[in-house]
Amino acid sequence: MKQYSLHVIVHQPSEETENKYMAEVPLLPGCRAWGDTPGETLDYLRDVVNNYIRSSREHGDPLPGEIEEAA
């Protein structure tokens, strides 16, 4: 299985995120996760990204070029 190095943004807790940390991968639409700590949030995000990539492959949908370049 390929491994990817992706840019992740972690947002500090705020009212907008219901006082949770929020992390996202800007290159993958909808790939966001929330958690009580930065580490927990990144663990959840890793699962979201893995499922996104797996689903894209299963359905024959191409990943953004920048993602393939990061493999």
Question: What does it look like?
Answer:
Helix content is 37%, strand content 15%. The protein is built from 2 helices and 3 strands, in the order βββαα. The protein has helices at residues 38-58, 65-69; strands at residues 9-11, 21-24, 32-35. It has a 3-stranded antiparallel beta sheet, covered by helices on one side. The radius of gyration is 13 Å and the shape is elongated. The chain starts with 8 loop residues before the first strand and ends with a helix. The mean pLDDT is 92.
Task: Give the CA-based shape.
Answer: elongated
Q: Element order, helices and strands?
A: EEEHH
Biggest beta sheet attributes: 3 strands, antiparallel
Indicate the structural class: alpha+beta
Rounded Rg: 13 Å
Strand order of the largest sheet: 1-2-3
Classify the helix fraction into a percent range. Answer: 25-40%
Distance between the termini: 10 Å
Low-confidence stretches: none
Number of DSSP strands?
Answer: 3
Q: How many domains make up the 3D coordinates? A: 1
Helical stretch count? 2
Mean pLDDT, rounded to whole units? Answer: 92
Relative strand content: 15-25%
Could you provide a short overview of the structure?
With 71 residues, the protein is of the alpha+beta class. The chain has helices at residues 38-58, 65-69; strands spanning 9-11, 21-24, 32-35. The protein has one domain (9-60).
Characteristics of this structure?
alpha+beta; three-stranded antiparallel sheet; about 70 residues; single chain
